[in-house]
Amino acid sequence: MKLRTSLLGAIFALCSLSANAELSIQITQGVDNPIPIAIVPFTNESGGVFSEDVAQIVINDLEQVGEFRSLSRDNMLSMPSEEQQVFYRDWRILAQDYLLIGKINQQPGSQLVQVQYEFFDINREIKLAGEVLTGSVTQLRDIGHTISNVVFEQVTGVPGAFTSQILYIVAENAGPGMSLFRLEKADYDGARPQILLESGEPIMSPSWSPNGQDVAYVSFETDFPRIYIQNIATGQRRQITNFPNINSSPVWSPDGTKLAMVLSKDGDPEIYVQDLNTNQLMRITQHPAIDTEPSWTPDGSHIVFMSDRTGRPQVYRLEIGAPSYNVERLTFDCDQCMKPKFLPDGVNLVHVRRESRDPRYQIAILNVETLRVITLTDTSLDESPSVAPNGSMIMYATKFNGRGVLDAVSIDGRVKFRLPSSQGDVREPAWSPFLN
Amino acid sequence: MGKQLNQFFKVSLLVVSLFALGACSSTSETDDGSADSSGQSSSSSSSGSASSSAGSSSGQLTQDQIRAQAALRETVFYFDFDVAEFQPADRETLTYHARDLAANPSKRVRLEGHADERGTREYNLALGERRANGILNYFIVNGASRSQIEVVSYGEERPAQSGQTENAYSRNRRVEIVAR
Predict the structure, then answer these.
(1) CB contact B74 to A (< 8 Å)
(2) Residues A166-431, CATH architecture
(3) Chain B residues close to A249, C-beta within 8 Å
């Protein structure tokens, strides 16, 4: 007889409970010629000690995405904190292209801090950006990430995603035959993890609402996979489905009004779209094979999904409202192509790929117009790719030293970083939309 | 839970029914599923097994009853990679399970389908369900009632053995029969 896990008789929906196991980032592959940038320690004008080093947060952000290399503090010839103290030649000698300086001020007895930063182009000798950010002393990390966003966009032209967050699942061994499952949320770099849900039964498939306020996921807490929606800030949750058999793979439409999902209530997994206002359910696919892993095209007009109707898992596209036989097959040259999701351009399709002559599961991008395929990873159990809101990186789950970890790779495959877990198996990352 | 059988299962039902015709058909199956202490071997015609089979009038177990009791102790069935059909070698054991359900209408079981970790999680969830449904349908064509059987797939979420070895994978591709 199987030992059924009733470690937790009830499951707990939680908000703002910090998890003790922080993920810390490791850069595993950078670009050959990173952009040299000098980030001077921000001057503390109020004399107190802050829990966060804002300049170091910016350094970590920019180096993580691999495009930048920051100048060591030991090599700096001067440490300006405002524009009048900047001598461009000091930085040109050190072959720096960009310079970031700043200062922090906290009024006595106040929880508010003011962070002033200024960002310079050394070669053109101009100030590119600068402002004063005000927030609580507990928000210094957020302020650092906000400055990183500005620097990244000034240099690359692409908005930074450093204030974005991730959801993911952690599974931990909790004794013989027992596991503990957690849905957690953290900064994109794994910092400040919070537990949103904890259960003795599996939790799967977290998905952000487009406004970043809610998460949909699958929980087995009733002994069956059922879909739930939970408000991230309040922890308030409601069960969305209770159909027989599989209820899984919830994914929000880009406008946030509908939820695509997989139900096998009529015998085999089919893709449905539920209107979240009217609760009306529309069946999208109609085929006795496995149809699963729906995602929306960026314009919300089509569903992309995986089906093994030819005998092997392949990717298909179907217009919402069109007859199910109007399905369009998108992948042909792989043994298995799974978990499809279009990049914001609607042309490049991120997916999990297994080649006919290679047993590994890897993250790849298919251009559906040119049919060119780029395989981004070189490990073998890669799954659950999730794209950063600025489209620059993909986070995915893989195995390292026998444990589940989260890796990220740039969409050109040049940069990789890893968020190793200090305990348990970490998987199913879901990268947030841009958050305000 | 009025289920509509799809083409896939209609085909497998047909195949399964044909096999079922060839399976040995014995009478009065009154086994209550209680364990006895004899080994798995069905060739030893031991009459001294510590059975408490309630329906046995003579106290002597037939060959078939001994075989049935051994079969009912086997509750985990393993599958090949990316394959949803149970292994032919398990057919006889599963037939005993089906006949046990048919003979004991109050009995309830849960079929828990599982997959190894290769491939995506949602696909494995579907694959685990396909595996469990294959056994569900085999039970039904062999006389069990649909209402006796509950099916749930855990996909790759509840591995029996962790690790990235072929041995662990083969132990994780399984359907477990759990009494309710």
Answers:
(1) no
(2) 6 Propeller (2.120)
(3) 122
* Residue A219 DSSP SS3: strand
Interface test with B, best of A205, A383, A401 (most B CBs within 10 A): A383
Domain with CATH 2.120.10.30 in chain A: 166-431
Q: What is the pLDDT of residue A172?
A: 93
Decide: helix, strand or coil at residue B37: coil
pLDDT at B39 > cutoff 70 = no
Task: Looking at the complex, report in whole angstroms how far the Cα of residue A334 sits from the nearest Cα belonging to chain B.
Answer: 13
ipTM of the shown complex: 0.91
Number of cross-chain residue pairs from A and B with Cβ atoms under 8 Å apart: 104
Q: Is the pLDDT of residue B8 over 90?
A: no
Instruction: Return the CATH superfamily for domain A29-156.
Output: TolB, N-terminal domain (3.40.50.10070)
| Eight-class DSSP state of B125 | H
Chosen CATH of B78-180 out of 3.30.1330.60, 3.40.50.300, 2.40.10.340, 3.40.50.10470: 3.30.1330.60
pTM of the model: 0.86
Domain ranges within chain B, ordered by starting residue: 78-180
Q: Which residue blocks in A244-345 are alpha helix, DSSP H?
A: none
With an 8 Å Cβ cutoff, are B5 and A267 in contact? Answer: yes
CA A330 – CA A427 distance, rounded (Å): 27
B139 CA to chain A: closest CA distance, Å? 16
* A290 → closest Cβ in B7, B126, B163: B126
Chain A residue with CA closest to B8: the answer is A288
Give me chain A's average pLDDT, please. 92
Nearest to A383 among B1, B75, B120 (CB): B120
Angle value at C-alpha A202, between A197 and A208, nearest 5 degrees: 50
- CB < 8 Å to A171, chain B: 157
Say how far apart CA A201 and CA A226 lie, in whole Å.
12
Q: Where is B121: in which H helix or E strand?
A: helix B121-141
Q: Under 8 Å CB-to-CB from A214, ≥6 apart: which residues?
A: A208, A229, A230, A231, A232
Half-sphere exposure of A276 (CA within 13 A, CB side): 21
Q: A427 by DSSP, 3-state: which?
A: strand
- Each residue's pLDDT tens digit, A31-80: 778 999 999 999 998 877 888 999 999 999 999 888 899 999 999 999 99
Q: Where in chain A are all domains bearing CATH 3.40.50.10070? A: 29-156
